[in-house]
Amino acid sequence: MGFMGNRYWVLRHGKSIPNETGVIVSSMENGKLEKYKLASEGVNQAQLAGELFLKELQENGIPLENVRICYSPFSRTTHTAEVVASVLNLSLGGPQCKVYEDIRERYFGPSFELQSHDKYSEIWDLDEKDPFMKPEEGGESVADVVSRLTSALVQIESEFQGCAILIVSHGDPLQILQTILKAVGEQVGPDSGDLASRVEAIKVPTVLSQHRKHALLTGQLRAVV
């Protein structure tokens, strides 16, 4: 487990209705709407991801009682978590599943909301140039997302120990999460300090601008720590 007290897997939500229609849904207000949950293909992807996660748990000798599913409150991630939980014979409303607002989708800003997916490339180009720059006023920069993901990790680490944590979230947040965990893992030494200060130490443009390297497909599961 190294520098973390738990083992972590990440899962990008299955293909959602916004993915199918090619629309950006990144605000909490819209993201929670039922009409933006998983498309039927996404339900299948979530089912397969759940089966793969179960297989990895078994291969690692991890009992189901040690599993915690931490998910974003958006309808597409909640739907994904629900499908995965059912594969593991867990209840989404039970003690092993918990929603965390801080792992929600990155909010790109009002002028991007409900616009075409084609606009993502504009945002990612900006991220490469300056990950501390917001896509627009009201939107979140990569660095903004790092701050809240760090809060979520600190909270999860304080609540659970020795667990297999599945984080069910979105494309950008999971790319960013993997970026910071990789960088923190590479700089850990005996006196590296607590998790928040370790993340702060690698919160620099050269690291954060690389988040697209950790892209996940919809419904893709990946072990990270």
UniProtKB/TrEMBL annotation:
It comes from the Eukaryota. InterPro entries: His_Pase_superF_clade-1 (IPR013078), His_PPase_superfam (IPR029033). PANTHER family: PHOSPHOGLYCERATE MUTASE FAMILY PROTEIN (PTHR47821). This is Phosphoglycerate mutase. The lineage of its organism: Eukaryota, Viridiplantae, Streptophyta, Embryophyta, Tracheophyta.
